[in-house]
Amino acid sequence: MTQAAVPSLLERIKGLAKSWIEVASSAKSGETLSFAPDLPEDDLDRLRPQLRGCLDGKGGEVSARARAAALGREYLSLSAEGRRRFLKLVADEFGPDPEAVDQAIAALQQAPADKRAGVEQRLREVLEPPRLRLLTQFNALPEGVKFLVDLRAELAGMAKGDAGLRALENDLKGLLSAWFDVGFLELRRLTWASPANVLEKLIAYEAVHTIQGWDDLKNRLDSDRRLYGFFHPRMPAEPLIFVEVALVQGLSGDIQQLLDLNAPAGNPDTADTAIFYSINNAQRGLNGISFGNFLIKRVVEELTREFKNLKNFATLSPIPGFCPWLESRLAEGEAGLLSGIEHRALAQISNGLTAKGSLKALLADPAWVADDHLAETLRGPLMRLAARYLAEERKSGVRALDPVAHFHLSNGARIERINWRADTSAKGLSQSCAMMVNYLYKLDDIEANHETYAGKGKVVISSAVKTLLKG
Amino acid sequence: MTQAAVPSLLERIKGLAKSWIEVASSAKSGETLSFAPDLPEDDLDRLRPQLRGCLDGKGGEVSARARAAALGREYLSLSAEGRRRFLKLVADEFGPDPEAVDQAIAALQQAPADKRAGVEQRLREVLEPPRLRLLTQFNALPEGVKFLVDLRAELAGMAKGDAGLRALENDLKGLLSAWFDVGFLELRRLTWASPANVLEKLIAYEAVHTIQGWDDLKNRLDSDRRLYGFFHPRMPAEPLIFVEVALVQGLSGDIQQLLDLNAPAGNPDTADTAIFYSINNAQRGLNGISFGNFLIKRVVEELTREFKNLKNFATLSPIPGFCPWLESRLAEGEAGLLSGIEHRALAQISNGLTAKGSLKALLADPAWVADDHLAETLRGPLMRLAARYLAEERKSGVRALDPVAHFHLSNGARIERINWRADTSAKGLSQSCAMMVNYLYKLDDIEANHETYAGKGKVVISSAVKTLLKG
Amino acid sequence: MTQAAVPSLLERIKGLAKSWIEVASSAKSGETLSFAPDLPEDDLDRLRPQLRGCLDGKGGEVSARARAAALGREYLSLSAEGRRRFLKLVADEFGPDPEAVDQAIAALQQAPADKRAGVEQRLREVLEPPRLRLLTQFNALPEGVKFLVDLRAELAGMAKGDAGLRALENDLKGLLSAWFDVGFLELRRLTWASPANVLEKLIAYEAVHTIQGWDDLKNRLDSDRRLYGFFHPRMPAEPLIFVEVALVQGLSGDIQQLLDLNAPAGNPDTADTAIFYSINNAQRGLNGISFGNFLIKRVVEELTREFKNLKNFATLSPIPGFCPWLESRLAEGEAGLLSGIEHRALAQISNGLTAKGSLKALLADPAWVADDHLAETLRGPLMRLAARYLAEERKSGVRALDPVAHFHLSNGARIERINWRADTSAKGLSQSCAMMVNYLYKLDDIEANHETYAGKGKVVISSAVKTLLKG
Amino acid sequence: MTQAAVPSLLERIKGLAKSWIEVASSAKSGETLSFAPDLPEDDLDRLRPQLRGCLDGKGGEVSARARAAALGREYLSLSAEGRRRFLKLVADEFGPDPEAVDQAIAALQQAPADKRAGVEQRLREVLEPPRLRLLTQFNALPEGVKFLVDLRAELAGMAKGDAGLRALENDLKGLLSAWFDVGFLELRRLTWASPANVLEKLIAYEAVHTIQGWDDLKNRLDSDRRLYGFFHPRMPAEPLIFVEVALVQGLSGDIQQLLDLNAPAGNPDTADTAIFYSINNAQRGLNGISFGNFLIKRVVEELTREFKNLKNFATLSPIPGFCPWLESRLAEGEAGLLSGIEHRALAQISNGLTAKGSLKALLADPAWVADDHLAETLRGPLMRLAARYLAEERKSGVRALDPVAHFHLSNGARIERINWRADTSAKGLSQSCAMMVNYLYKLDDIEANHETYAGKGKVVISSAVKTLLKG
């Protein structure tokens, strides 16, 4: 969005502290790299010894870092193709030394049991590719950690079908996993008094319920709201993941109401329920390195400490997979999906609208959601189908098909309530037929719920949802 | 020292935020561990499933961390023997799965070239021992990083002759190397306005020239001094390494003068020379993870920015290996060490003191250093021998025998000046015959000096030291 | 503006730390005040003893403060009329004790010379009205200082023609003058990383060149801009005065260009000129307590330190009084204002436009500014008239008639350049016929310029402006 | 004390930011003041116009401040005599203009009632002496506020018998009262992680129970202790007043125990009592500007929030006036002080010691406190006399004679318990015959107690103390 356009990393790094860069250029005076954007063959030939120079230990570690920083800057100035060629070189020519690997394997195969630990370690060492050390050195860039996080996001896009790039991406994942260990993350509460350059990231990164601008953001930071994120000490202006919470009376079942700019703020001190209405991973480059469950746990702790009257912790979540699933089921025919009575009701109501009176036909026109009469007729069957989708549909036979359901169920929540016409935005309509779910985190049951789901593969649901399923 | 006794980690952790611990105990209610200090066999049997529980993924990552934190606390309450048994269990029973390793090796040996990268990575993964994941989880302790740093220091002591413990110690080194990458360290200047709990660590950790108390410390933080350290964001009260600098006119050649509490502070704005008179690694658990050269480079940058008149950067360093080396040479006879004239001079002066008039006999009584006449006679031969020791004696034929000399020479310094009666403390006397060295860092020559030493194995010395060598 | 609506003080205080309030209510349990909004007579009767209670010393100072805080809260809940009545009571019934004043006067009139100092002081003490002590106690409110600043702004509106309220307003001015002594103010640079709740105040308070929203603001905080403000430690989110600076090459003569969101940022490190293009007093309640000249001085210091290439410090300022002045002159006839040639030129160009061809008639239609031909004809006379207005027109015969000119001239600036079509906004057009002025602060001349203007009453102008005057 | 010698203000200011000074010297180039230390007559003559220059408005406010800063620096370099002469000049020659005062008085005497407010204000204005504006300008010094606080302390010493200096000191008190309004003070908790330069001030300023060094200090900051102080934003390293608290079970009656370095720390979470065992005003220059009662109130709030089990808040206080009072009573004869039985007991026990066996004679030798038998005999009468002194002896017939008792009683405390042999230090012995008092702050009774004491002049005591009085 233009309003709060986040500067690209390149722009930011250009303007930043240049201490390492300066060291680099002073160290290797005269020599400027300035590659062509697409990094043609002869630039590759000039790049190769530079990369070697970062690893050979001549000139000392300090110079190596400085050189790596200079290369990182070069990388940022390349075109997409140039970057791919740069990374390909790193991936393919800086892997483990095959001979050393073979020797270490031979040693392992001959090692007596009581020496095995040491020999295994030796093998692990020679398997550690020099390209990993190269990547680590980019940490010397002023925003080096962010550089590597973004690099992994780029690599993920390029790596398909290329074992070398995939390996490089994997190396990077390992490195970032160590660096982003949850023990290093800081929980920070963001408020309207937080730095604007951090707040604009929220506007840019919020993907569940788009933030419409600074007024919308300010409203989400009002006295009856809380917004928490995890941050890394070396990326202080970049949230890694953040969650938005509303402090209310009873379960909230309507996102429009929650986000209404004109609604007055409630009194948080008397609130009995904390509604987690949006949780966003903000860094694509950290995919697969999870901290969502830690975040929820920590936020529950914080809220409990601050608000003595809080009793319930629940989400107000979308059902992102429902419509796609429903469509594919409808494509197979509606017989098993609706009861006879429902069929007749739909046929009747859609008389003037469509020849077929089918659910598929009715849903095709998004206007249904604004038509009270029509919506009322659809309510019964859609709520039941949503309950069925959430509670019974599985992926690989084990985990809940819906990804959001899976996330909360593994964290120990239960499916508490399905809310009708809870998100009538275009996205809500096309993903979830405008429904939303409350997942309830009951502190005393979290452990048991988790066991039931993760251990025994059973989904925990409330009696209200059970009733829906029967209906 | 009692004055500023640093609380043990155990004490500190006891009093700290208990959030994880509480989660742990709530998660596993009822169950308290409370092992006997020596961790007898049946306690080991209770520990084993606990450790497994941290790894099996049941109960979720959050609980696993909490459980690890509880185990970490238990560990701290054990005796030395109990700790050894605890770590031995971790080392021996949580190594890589041999079968998985063998399979991955077989797969590698059959892999076609273009798939090798992926298969290598698979092998690396199975070689990554579960015990490493266990150790990582201790990061959830309130001072988890310090816990692991101290743990490695303990392990280093225990590991001798035990391949398992050595492997564990090595795993930990790898983990800490990633976490303590120099890109994560903060350079902090410490002043008299710094927190007392950080300053007391300086008193405790200074090993080159012991800090005698708070007055001595305050004097070293005066307006003509600078003290910089590297810190890790998760160990904010623990310096990793620190350097003490005096801003003076010309090279300082006398440590007594520099540390004199009654000497008035100089004017730092007119100083032309920064003397690095003490550099200390503060964490034994980070041995082998070096950042000394980075520190010096960064401090030179800072000082250059702050003081426009600075021209020279030099150390005032001990020669810790000189006396041991000299003794072993003297034991072989003094013939090659002294000239005839020197011999006679010594014989003459020691007439009343000793029958033999040998250097060895003269040095045996530390009173020589206070005897101006005697000292003057010894000055010539000892200065020459020190120059020879520093410039010519090698370890494994390559690096300078003296460890301090080696450190500075690899960083690109040159041996500038040897200072007579520069440190007459008991330690200075017994290590270096009271001499000290200035290593000079000339900004324009650092790179070349480094190459000369690290590349060609030649020690760079000033003309004054050359003259000494000839003498 | 709605986008960044600043919460009213009342709203903010409601949600804030209640420590004093709680003490108050616990101290005086049971008793709630809750006055009617217009503060009718019997509420006044209840208020009177409460105010006395704040002063009589019974219950101790702590309770007095708490009680004052409670009264402050009441005040904020009153209507405009209620507030007036509240303040009238304070003003009229809590003045100095006339008897005590008379006695002290008598004592002074009889005092011998060497005792006079003490007796004068006694008189000053009895003249210090109790209402001042009352006001001081409102400082106990969570945002007490801001409360009093806003109170003075309110009083200024009410006080006209009411000696009592005017005296109260004056008391408050004295108190705030002591509290806002420039020695207590902090110079803070605001950037895009500053708290959003501070930045939104800039949007709300900028009155010279309205900030259109967050994008406009972000542009004014770009790398080639600086924004500094003075803050008081007890009003940390409220700028008192702030100045916006652009770092450019040469004098800027066009505000449109400076504020263009699409213009690329310049390189501040090579800039030779700092343009102060907007300076705003943000708190009406601090009228008459000046710190503008301190701000400019401090900002010049900061910029000089940061940017080594800066040579010139100048403003780009409106001429707010020009059009009103011109209109009143035109009303008197145009004879003395235009030369014969100019008259003919205007007559010619306005042929089809207006019968009279007068300057007055031409300026009446703001479209002239966009008509290149017409504008070019007007340029000569208007520039000359502006120069005459700035350099020659005086208020009370001494100070420059234009308030902005007076401000900068007293600070030691000189009128450097008048810029044509420099601000074509509606406001620029109606105030200054779209012209703007550069006032130049030449560091070496500031003192002398100040003397020339403040001492001798002469306006310092550049040779270019002199030429205009002659033209 | 040498260990933590606090640098003098002069030393500190010398090394500090010189921005104002530089402005000053650049403003008035060439002209250096450099007065002789004793400020002889011709230096006074040079000083006079400088002081005038700070007030006449020529050169602008910024220059005036800069000039004042330069004069402040000169002041600090003068001898005691020079300083007195400097201040005398300021006091005597920069008072109110007598003519203007007389005119304003005449105007007041003729003013109609409804104009009186304005005319009074005018009179107040002309009574405001220029010297006050001069003093205010010293706030421009880098540590200007501290400068003025220290200046008042100096003035207090000089002012005796000099109406002019006394008036100046009074002006300063008024200024400081406005600046140090309790609304501006920050409550800060000091811990072992606080800056060393702040902590050393505690060592220097603690006057009740001397802090023996850094170990003693660290012990007073242990986990079962709290230390709070008030700070001013412009004197961030200088506590204004601070209080030391121990968290214990039941009332503490023995200061030796509380301060024992070897005693283990208690568990603060289970403590039911907070003992305020030392409260110190740290700035002599703020005498008469009280914030002690605010501090206690705020600390009680903080502690209540942090520790849920706290029920009692009490002091452990010295009885500084007891021994002087007792001595003067004993000088009048012991008849009324001791009962017949007590007399005989004393006579019996002191048989071998003294001819007279009088209390006076027994107390003359401080060894009594270590003699269990003798002490036991003295216990009864001394405890009773202490109770009588505290509860019944008055100053001017109203307030408790003992200053510490008066302070706590006016704050709403009650005399709870007198503790025998509670402070056997030399000071405790000579002030209080080694006794100490617990003053109890019962939250519900504070208001009523205060009224009883301040309103009705009655001292509130516990039943235990009542019993003592009867005994």
From TrEMBL, chains A, B, C, D:
Q: Could you tell me which residue ranges the Malonyl-CoA decarboxylase C-terminal domain spans?
A: 183-442
Q: Which InterPro entries match?
A: Malonyl_CoA_deC (IPR038917), Malonyl_CoA_deC_C (IPR007956), Malonyl_CoA_deC_C_sf (IPR042303), MCD_N (IPR035372), MCD_N_sf (IPR038351)
Tell me the superkingdom of the source: Bacteria
All residue ranges annotated as the Malonyl-CoA decarboxylase N-terminal domain in the record:
94-180
Q: Which Gene3D superfamilies match?
A: Malonyl-CoA decarboxylase, catalytic domain (3.40.630.150), Malonyl-CoA decarboxylase, oligemerization domain (1.20.140.90)
**What Pfam families has UniProt attached to this entry?**
MCD, MCD_N
Q: Identify the PANTHER family for this entry.
A: MALONYL-COA DECARBOXYLASE, MITOCHONDRIAL (PTHR28641:SF1), PTHR28641
- Name-wise, this protein is Malonyl-CoA decarboxylase
Species assigned in the record? Magnetospirillum sulfuroxidans
Its lineage opens with: Bacteria, Pseudomonadati, Pseudomonadota, Alphaproteobacteria, Rhodospirillales
